[in-house]
Amino acid sequence: MRPLSISEMFGPTVQGEGVSTGKPALFIRLGLCNLDCVWCDTPYTWDWKGKNGTPYDRKVELTDMTVDYVVQWASQHDTKLVVISGGEPLVQGATLAVLIETLLDIGKDVEIETNGTISPKLHLEYVSDQIRFNVSPKIDCSGVDLNKSIKLDVLEEFVALPYSTFKFVVKTDQDIERVQDIVRWTDMPDDRVWLMPEGVDTQTISTSLPYVIEQAVANNYHVTTRLHVHAYGDKRGV
Q: What percent of the chain has pLDDT over 70?
């Protein structure tokens, strides 16, 4: 089995976004991503060429770890929720599946942060109804071509899973219209949709938050802020 390419593991802390905001959690941040969002807050997991302003050294930023090592780390903590983030975790699907199965075996709850472009059926079909996918489709404001970032057939697969939720970073009316289109095209339930302001500092998030709240109320969506950013800014490992 190939090792996992890990950026960082940290916690206990709290989940800062989405349906589980405020819950105590351990975080396993995997390296590598198949997209390159302009506002990515973890470019150190994938940006080796400096697309977002700073070239990171893959040899410095990522470490190969076995599933057994990662599970042993998680098992040392009583915290029940484990959030697997990235990067894009599903890039490492085969080994990720083994990690998830083993975490479930030791009694952990698992959430996966994903951009929704890679089918969960490829490697995670056997565990997909036991975990929560926090799906964050990357729309126009991400700067990624929509032909690459929005895969409607894959999003429909996530919609069919019982514990999937959908989190959209929004800035403008155009973003809201795009969310409405995706919700309609995929039959995504309104009560599983979250809108989130973009930002890696409290002022930026707070400035956008009233607009995001207004749009969420108008469309019967939920709102999430970024609790960890309010507490720690863009500090890593929190």
A: 100
